[in-house]
Predict the structure.
Amino acid sequence: MSTLPRAHELGLIGCHVCGLVCRDRPDLDDAACPRCGAPLHRRKHASYMRTWALLITAFIFYIPANVLPIMRTASLGDIDDNTILSGVIELWVKGSPDLAIIVFTASIVVPMLKFLAMSVLLISSQRQTAWAQRQRAKLYRLVEFIGYWSMLDVFVVALLTALVQFGIFSLVEPLPGVVYFGLTVVLTMLASMSFDPRLIWDSKEAND
């Protein structure tokens, strides 16, 4: 069965910023998107190298994000420092299992799944395999979609710090762990943005 023509075979190129489909030209190095003005390029430059670098750095920061406490709560002389996992356990014990599940999913499950998914996409694309290309493309879109939800822990700490300020009676303050966690989320989002999903389909040409 014959395959459908690809964009470069039709002389088309898509803008990486706004998605506008433009005409491909030989002098593409100086071309810009007519709608948003972003530079046009057929492939993201050094996609593999940049994505791996960002992903590995994010994983390194994810270790202290889980080991170091992210929030300190003080109430009438009782001071308690919580890591992500201890905070989830405390929410569960104090009768908020729904919130504990949400925080555990957004702060533990989602980042680990993003590390796994991006590693699978990178390794399979570098090996130029035709395995599950359509499914891998959908996986990439899913990683992009859920990336922002990983910031839930940072939002919770920021809101509590701003709202729970009652002098000596109660105090909530962020600790270094939340900084590492925020860096992890930002770096994983940048890693997914650096990955060129068209590399998934390039393997079809190599195998043909």
Q: What stands out?
A: Strands lie at 12-14, 21-23, 71-75, 78-82, 170-174. The first strand starts at residue 12 and ends at 14. The helical segments are 47-67, 84-93, 97-126, 133-146, 152-163, 176-194, 198-207.
